[in-house]
Amino acid sequence: xxxxxxxxxxxxxxxxxxxxxxxxxxxxxxxxxxxxxxxxxxxxxxxxxxxxxxxxxxxxxxxxxxxxxxxxxxxxxxxxxxxxxxxxxxxxxxxxxxxxxxxxxxxxxxxxxxxxxxxxxxxxxxxxxxxxxxxxxxxxxxxxxxxxxxxxxxxxxxxxxxxxxxxxxxxxxxxxxxxxxxxxxxxxxxxxxxxxxxxxxxxxxxxxxxxxxxxxxxxxxxxxxxxxxxxxxxxxxxxxxxxxxxxxxxxxxxxxxxxxxxxxxxxxxxxxxxxxxxxxxxxxxxxxxxxxxxxxxxxxxxxxxxxxxxxxxxxxxxxxxxxxxxxxxxxxxxxxxxxxxxxxxxxxxxxxxxxxxxxxxxxxxxxxxxxxxxxxxxxxxxxxxxxxxxxxxxxxxxxxxxxxxxxxxxxxxxxxxxxxxxxxxxxxxxxxxxxxxxxxxxxxxxxxxxxxxxxxxxxxxxxxxxxxxxxxxxxxx
Length: 477
Description:
Blueprint: H1 10-13, H2 16-48, H3 56-84, H4 89-108, H5 112-139, H6 146-175, H7 177-197, H8 204-207, H9 211-216, H10 234-237, H11 241-256, H12 259-290, H13 294-322, H14 325-343, H15 355-373, H16 380-395, H17 402-435, H18 437-458, H19 465-476
């Protein structure tokens, strides 16, 4: 019987809920491992690798910049390979293996080159997770709920970002180096379980053909259902290579000539630059300004990221209800004074903001405020790209075939994210060394103001529910 061919637990293992949950666990693991290194890195460099403390910031900048650079280079390659791979579970599992090996190399590193190779493996694996994971997410969520779903996914991303540095700094100071590194291995085991249990949407067509396909197809043949494999389109696969290349060029030309897409990508670059830049300089600045060690440094990461966990879901709901433009502009504009205020404690030009009585409360409050408005801008680029792609799919289904277009769109998102991860540490590290932490925050505030202006002119508002329902109906048909 046909039911006998279904894998164990097929119904719940292939459900949208489990697919989205598996993707969010993967994103959590990737961001957890990225943030995990920040508070523990000075100890690794100075105590285990015997690097001079005066060089700690330079090595931190180089390591975080290389992470962004590798992600920038590997994302298009990964997207190209994923297009040729029938099963999206395979690249996700390969990325997990690379991440596991890279994490072990970081933990056991006794030389700088091993440290960099481990970080490169983690970065490559992270790029695969973001590109394939967000493409799967976009293909399994209706447009009218996309902002909310992206917001929930970003909540897990934020949980990883806050959990990583908070756990590493606390465990290092309270229990030691190897206890700290045991925690990421637990996270990776959970990621393994989630990825192995999930049955990707592309497998449904072979197990549960639709009624319409049964009516028009012999019983011994498999007909493509509405949930065709993520990257399979037989009519396009049969095209000559020249036609495929021409369609791909038309796709990227149409996307990159759209100011909405460029604004979305700028949002991705600026957001990741801001987050990576702050993570790059925060441990060294807090040690110099207040004499804080890893535990208190990790608490500052906690203050920055915890509001993200609470507010990412509501922020996504707000974008679904009133559109992208208003919340995003407000978020970027509010960050300008918060960043300037963040840089004042510990700077000799602002003696009123110095000392324990004023400096520490000002710094902590500003950081908490910054974390509270970050959910308004994080994830906006991915949502905007998904909106544009779904709109263009309806107008030009040949160039914007639904499955490949999502994968390519989120490959562009990952390139922008990795570019920001490279620019952020490089920019903040250079400014921190040259002009100090305050003027570094002024530079970041300027970037936020520029993005607020761009968002005001070019970000879309969410289409009305009836328009979203019509588009969903076209897709289901």
